[in-house]
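Could someone model 1-deoxynojirimycin with this protein?
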Amino acid sequence: MPKWLEDAVFYEIYPQSFYDANGDGIGDFEGIIQKLDYIKDLGCNALWLNPCFDSPFKDAGYDVRNYKKTAARYGTNEDLKRLFVEAHKRGIHVLLDLVPGHTSEEHAWFVESKKETPNEYWNRYIWTNDWISWGVEGVRFIAGEAPRNGSYIINFFKSQPALNYGFLNPKDSWQLPVNHPDAIATREAMKDVMRFWLDAGADGFRVDMADSLVKFDDAQKAGTSALWRNIRAMLDTEYPEAALVSEWSNPPLSLKAGFHMDFLLDHPGSGYRSLVRDYQLDGSLRPFNDNSFFKQDGRGDIRRFLDQYLGFYEKTQNDGYISLITGNHDSGRISGNLSNRELALAYALFFTLPGVPFLYYGDEIGMRYLYLPTKEGGYARTGSRTPMQWGKGKNLGFSGADGSTLYLPVDPSPDAPTVEAQQKNTGSLLNTVKALLKLRHDEPDLQSKPNLEIIFAEHEKLPFVYRRGVFVLAVNPSGSATETSVSFEGRPVYTIGECFLEKGKCRMGQQSFGVWRV
Ligand code: NOJ
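Reply:
Sure, complex below.
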């Protein structure tokens, strides 16, 4: 386990939208370099960059055309290496986004694979021997697109043919077993990509759709897990400080498969979702009946989160970390249904639980979701990918380009939150995030390690009280004061709102959060 994860706090950057240093309307590596001091000052000491490789951008870069070449719009490979160097100078680690499940249909491997005559890449993708155009057991086929007499499987969009790591239990002659030399060659090709970027200075990878590799896998993902354990063994030997975080959302499986961290994502029915947006939509996209934990109306229930989270946490304490996210490039902005005070309390919990937290760019100032037409396969996700709002003035400081040529428009509202305004305001969300992250970095008991004890967490009752090492923490998101009996006295080290831990009581004013040394 890389030691640096013990105190890592990640910042996710969607590179298109962070900072445009060369004035062409889209973010770039140089822009990220120029903002590294901001990220460091915020309290984030690690980055996850969404895919920044050569791509036709039919899925915002998750359709990779060349794994070893950066997309020209962000800069050259040399620029990315300079970003690694500049980040490392500031104690910041950098994870790239590895997309092992599929490539772009324009990738050279696929161009070869679709040819009529067999060649080295014929089995790099999953081809049937004939025409199949209907889905089977969750896999989808594309037919009629290639000179080759077959159909191929896609992993996500039509433009993303699935790479071939074999089938756990092949049922047909076109389904290779996982130990077929061509399935193994795909795995080795992906290791080669990883070595390429680790040698260039990257510190690891966020792995896209990490659970999707072996087809017709079993419920325990035996095939895909064995594959990742093989890759992890390579890392442990050759790059022991490199970190892997999975998009899998099942820590008991993913961490045993060799990942160091796994995201808890905003999937419907997930415990994470009950914290921040536990709502149904009416036909007009308006939320109703929002029972998420951080809502001030106090109808949330911490058990809906904990029952899932603790189940995962207890099974995985020795295997790796759970990663809570403020949001990501696929989810709605967390500010969509939470006020700034509700957000502050949400971040207070995220940044004081065990595991390795991830902050999505702009969430530190409460950037808002914008209703926009789809861009680069974003669909409804597009509205969470708008340019970072640095300050007042042209394009809110994102770019010197003409506003009409920006990758996506900036938030046009007169009260759009900005870094500049919030830096000046001591009580701002930005400064709350800074204070919380400073506290976390100052106190080893509040970092990644699994030292969580639940003190009070009852169905439909508040507050939620927990302990980590020498600290007791409590949160009351509701608009009413509440209290519970405890057996601690404590000295406050950080509070939001009014709250006390004394005389056998944890007394929490409305919308409050406290950390006490006991
Ligand atoms: C998950 C990524 O987060 C998402 O943005 C992408 O569209 C799909 N995987 C396909 O790669």
